[in-house]
Amino acid sequence: MTSSAQQTYNEPGKMQPVLVTGATGRIGRAVIAELLAAGVPVRALTRNPAAAGLPAQVEVVAGDFTEPESLDPALQGVRSVFLLWTAPPATAEAVIKRIASRARRVVFLSSPHRTDHPFFQQPNPMARLHAEIERLITAAGLESTFIRPGMFTSNAQLWWAPTIRDGGVVRWPYGAAETAPIDERDLAAVAARTLYEEGHAGGDYVLTGPESLSQAEQVGVIGSVLGRQIPFEELSPEEFRRATEGIWPGPVVEMLLDAWGATIGRPAYVTSTVADVLGVPARTFRQWVSDHADAFRERPAE
């Protein structure tokens, strides 16, 4: 922790908590862990405190974005808010106004929709929502930092782990499409740092992993870590639509197909932001796979 953060949070009368929204999700929990490790007091917002399952030192408070007035107890006395939007957009303006009336700083988990790379320039509803929330934050006069992660390393587990565990063939579209997956632990560490450390007001941080890898190469890395070859078979976009029909939302499928297709022939957009903010390099995809290898290992025969 920097000296400025120590002064902010350790002097008498200045132990203001950081409010973490989306606190029970994967990213919210990781941000909380980073804040606690830095000695920062944490308050967590959740619709159901009894089921939160958060560390004992976290103050868990009930609240719901769909009912902006319910946020008042959670916002009382906070200095910074980690904003991860988890509701329909209808109440966004009222929520931002409430945050602005009580907190000084907001760190918003957005997306790289402003980044000049074809992978990030495909229209999608989430990008439009993020742009509108950013506009509201700016209009409210909040001290803000926008965190813009690219693809997550954990997508590999979501997409491919069941097939790999069963010893099957990974069938996927646009195997040559390159991305630079970001480890959520690095994302959480950057978000936490911007919540308690001075000097990040106005920050617009695009977060990626340190290397550009095609999707087929990512599957190859998983195989290398596991010590076996994993077959990869290219699907056409139409075959992928059929394979995911009734399982994935249609708009998500189209958004991904558009993004992967648009980036063919170009390396992924890679930033040094994780290293710039934290002073240590971003974790590689291989590091993430090594740390999560058990999720890909074959199930023992019954």
Can you offer a commentary on this structure?
The model is unreliable at 1-13 (pLDDT under 50). By secondary structure, the protein is of the alpha/beta class. The protein is built from twelve helices and eleven strands. The chain is globular, with a radius of gyration of 20 Å. The chain has helices at residues 3-10, 26-37, 72-75, 92-102, 125-139, 155-165, 184-196, 215-226, 237-244, 250-263, 273-278, 285-291, and strands at 18-20, 42-46, 59-62, 80-83, 105-109, 143-149, 170-173, 178-179, 204-207, 213-214, 232-235. Helix content is 40%, strand content 15%. It folds into two domains: 16-150 and 184-207, Rossmann fold; 155-180 and 210-269 and 283-296, Alpha-Beta Complex (UDP-galactose 4-epimerase, domain 1). Strand 1, helix 2 (26-37) and strand 2 (42-46) form a beta-alpha-beta unit. It starts with a helix and ends in an 11-residue tail after the last helix. The strands form three sheets. It has a seven-stranded parallel β-sheet with strand order 3-2-1-4-5-6-9, with helices on both faces. Strands 7-11 form a two-stranded parallel ribbon. Strands 8-10 form a two-stranded antiparallel sheet.
Topology:
Elements: H1 3-10, E1 18-20, H2 26-37, E2 42-46, E3 59-62, H3 72-75, E4 80-83, H4 92-102, E5 105-109, H5 125-139, E6 143-149, H6 155-165, E7 170-173, E8 178-179, H7 184-196, E9 204-207, E10 213-214, H8 215-226, E11 232-235, H9 237-244, H10 250-263, H11 273-278, H12 285-291
Parallel strand pairs: 1-2, 1-4, 2-3, 4-5, 5-6, 6-9, 7-11
Antiparallel strand pairs: 8-10
